[in-house]
Amino acid sequence: MATLRKSNIELLRIVSIVMVLIVHLDGASLGLPEPMGNITTVSGRDWWKLVVESFAIIGVNCFTLISGYFGIKAHWRGFVKFATTCLFYSVGIYLALTFTGLIKWQWTDFAHSVMVFTHTDLWYVPAYMVLYLLSPILNQAINTLDRQKYLWTIMALVAFNLYAGWWWGGSFNATGYSVMQLVMMYLIGQYIGRYGLFGNRFDNRKSYLTIYLIATAAIIAQSLYCNSLFTFAYNSPFVIIASVAFFMCFTTFTLQSTAINMLSASAFAVYLLHKNPYIWGGIIKRTSLYMWESLSLPMFTLATIAFVAVIYLVTVAIDRIRIAITSRI
Hints:
With 329 residues, this protein is mainly α. It is 72% helix and 0% strand. The chain contains 15 helices and no strands. The chain has helices at residues 7-30, 44-56, 59-70, 76-99, 107-114, 124-143, 147-167, 179-195, 205-223, 228-231, 237-249, 258-264, 267-274, 277-294, 297-326. Helix 1 runs antiparallel to helix 2 (44-56) and helix 9 (205-223) packs antiparallel against helix 11. The longest helix is centred in the last third of the chain and has 30 residues, at 297-326.
C-alpha cells in the first residue's frame, strides 16, 4: 500500500527530480558562465545561474541514492514496468505530436521512439536499466561483505572514481553521466540503508544541512575558477558530499502522506516527459530562454518556480493515464 512507503524519502524523490528539472531549466537551457578566475566579469544574472546550478546539481545523485537505500528488487514485473513507462512517454509523445500535426510522421523517427534504450538523449534511461540488471549481482555481493569490508570497498571505489574519473577524465566515469556513477551511488545508498552513514549514531539534521551548505559553497567557489563540466560533474567530490548530506537530512525524520506518495510515483515520469527531445527542444528550453530574455531576474525566478510546478502537475495528470493502462499489463 502507498501509505506504507516512507514519505520522507518519497518527498526527497520529488525534490530530487525537481532539482533535475531546475538544472535543465538553468544551465542546460541558458548556458553557464565560466569566469575562469576573472570574477569581475560575473554579473548578477551570472551569479544567479551559478548559485542555482550549485544547489540543484545533486538531484541525479540523490535520486540514485534512493534506489540504493531501498534496494532494487529485480523482477520481471519491475523490468516490464520500467520498460513500459519509458515506452509510454517516448512512443506516446511521438504519436500524439504526429496525430495533432505538430510534427511530420517518419517511420525512422517512430522506430527510434520505440528503441528507447538505444536511440535516446535521455542517458539515465539505459544507464538505470543496466543498474537494474546488475542489482541482483550487486545485492548478492553486498550480502557477502561485513560492514567493515563494505565500507572499505565503497571508499576505494569512490577514491578511484575521483582520481581516475573526475580528476583525470577517465572515460569510464569522466563526469558522472555513466553506469559506473549509478553503481557507486547505489552502493552508498545501500550502505546507508543497512548501517546508517555513521552507524546510526549521528542523525543531527542541522549538521547534515550544514555539510550540504558548505559543500554547495565549495561548488560555487569552484565554478568561478574551473569550467562548468568539471565543476558540476556528478562525480565531483563536492557534489557527492552535498548529495549524501542532503539525502541524510531526509532520513532524520519520519513522515507519512498519501499525497506525497502519489506525487512521488510520477517523479521519474517528469524526467521522461520534460526531457523528451520534442518537448525539451520545442517547449521547455524555448520557454526558459524566452523568460530569461524578457523578464527581470525576480520575475524570472517566480516564473521558473511556476513553470516547474506546472510541468510536474501536468506530468502527474498524464501519468495517471499511464498507470491506469500499464497496471493491467
